[in-house]
Amino acid sequence: MLRKSSAVNNMANTLHIPVLLEEVLSFVDSKKSYVVLDMTLGRGGHAEEILKKIPSNSHYYGVDRDRQAIEYCQQNLKTDRNIELCLIRTNFSKAVDIVRGYGEKGADFILMDIGVSSPQFDDPSRGFSYRFDSKLDMRMNRDDLISCYDIINSYTEEELVKIFSEYGQCHNARRVSKEIVEKRKEKKIETTFELVDIIKDVLPKKELNAEGHPCKQYFLALRYAVNNELDELKKGVEKAVNFLNKNGRLAVISFNFLEDKIVKNTLSPYISKKKVDKYKREEKEDTFHYLTKKPIVALDEEIKRNPRSRSAIMRVIERS
Q1: Strand pairing partners for 239?
Q2: DSSP 3-state assignment of 9?
Q3: Residue 278: its pLDDT value, please?
Q4: What's the pLDDT score for residue 2?
Q5: What CA–CA distance (Å, rounded) separates 61 from 47?
Q6: Which pLDDT score is estimated for 118?
Q7: CA–CA dist 147, 164 (Å, integer)
Q8: 245 and 312 Cβ atoms separated by less than 8 Å
Q9: Which one of 44, 270, 288, 293 has the fewest beta carbons within 10 angstroms of its own beta carbon?
Q10: Contact between residue 47 and residue 60 where contact means Cβ atoms under 8 Å apart
Q11: Where are the beta strands (DSSP E) in the chain?
Q12: The pLDDT of residue 5
């Protein structure tokens, strides 16, 4: 059992609205006992409603790499029916192997709502946001050794350029990286606001005056690097696809073009493209197909209620 922390109570004060909730629930079967693998448990927003829909004798495995998320759900995520609820602290690449270790041969529904949860993003002490002045951190798992502070203060200029260019598609990656290296010669770069000032000092007026915060993509790139998110995403999707039972479904919610591209490219080799000859009888093969002809996005009503759903993109596949 994981030790309770005071941060759990702090999380309760942060409003969390699960994105595309109704759309996710529409792909959950309520007529048969289910094995559900929720690979991004967070504060249990999706889990709470899925638990209400699936029948008794189902198994629900909730996974998150954040200790605070697991502790919060241990206290607050409940079911009064005969459903086995198991919470696991790990990352995408290890989740399926751990669930197999519990004796499960496959899952009927797998959900991946990727990225940073609202409680993580809105907690100043976690150092994810440029909105708060806090120590550079950005670790989803606070037991990890490498934080944003370490990257900013120890990575070479070339390594920083690669992070900002590949993960953030930042147009001024070289100028920003060079400035970071120069500034840290004077003193260590400790806080989010210090980093914001360094970035803004070298950006052209065009970027400073553009819509949105000028540091958004730089912070996103650093978050990806700290948590190895994109590699974990690819491995997680691959493991999830191969863990689906017959007629099992995988729903993946991403939040930008790069994440969605990784999801799409990882799923692509599994999706059946075979043309069927209706006059030739063959044994039915194990195939996967999309249940979403086009990716599902949030409707205007949801965006008004929850602006963070604006960038959500959901793809769903089924194993035949």
Answers
A1: none
A2: helix
A3: 47
A4: 35
A5: 9
A6: 79
A7: 16
A8: no
A9: 293
A10: yes
A11: 35-38, 59-64, 84-89, 107-113, 244-254, 288-290, 296-297, 313-319
A12: 36
